[in-house]
Amino acid sequence: MVISKALPASCQLSLSKPAFRNVFFLPLSIDQNQSKSQSCCSKTICKGCAVASRVCQTEVRQYPTCPFCRHPLPSSREESNKNMMKRAEANDPEATWRMGLKHHEKGDYGGAVRYWTKAAALGDADSHYNLSLMLLVGEVEEDEEKQYHLEEAAIRGHPNARYNLACHEKWNNRFDRAVKHHIIAANLGYDLSIQALK
What we know:
Radius of gyration: 19 Å
Number of strands: 2
Oligomer: single chain
Strand order of the largest sheet: 1-2
Helix content: 55-70%
Number of helices: 10
Order of helices and strands: HEEHHHHHHHHH
Shape: flat
């Protein structure tokens, strides 16, 4: 099959399995461009596994469904947005974070802060990290919360936040703390921390 050559090695295995057993539970890449969120259930899946799922479902002439919840895949962007909004209204942290991202991309920083604050309260690390960046860049005022959101994101396992904390500690001449943050970020697979430790 030609399409299998374009997939990551971990996803190629799933092409030989039935459609109902093709989702792998391997750690996702730090690079969020290599994964996608399902609008029906807000689960994140690598793009290779998503393609493998569709290929398997097409081979058995099954209508494409979500590999997690088996909900039919949306047929349009509007239907996808409607599903995501429904998940956000149900207090799903991933969907709420994504809605904040959509508002931020449109330049609606107030809407982004509202969604990310809600998602951060639900425990979403990406929302804490994005709020810390908005405070750092100056898109939002409240400067005293910048460190809080950065620390919360790092505690929840966000590698970029951990790296930024390491840089903050280094700028304040607390090198022992900076090294500890770099080690944690490196263990999470963050390349810049690995290079900083060399």
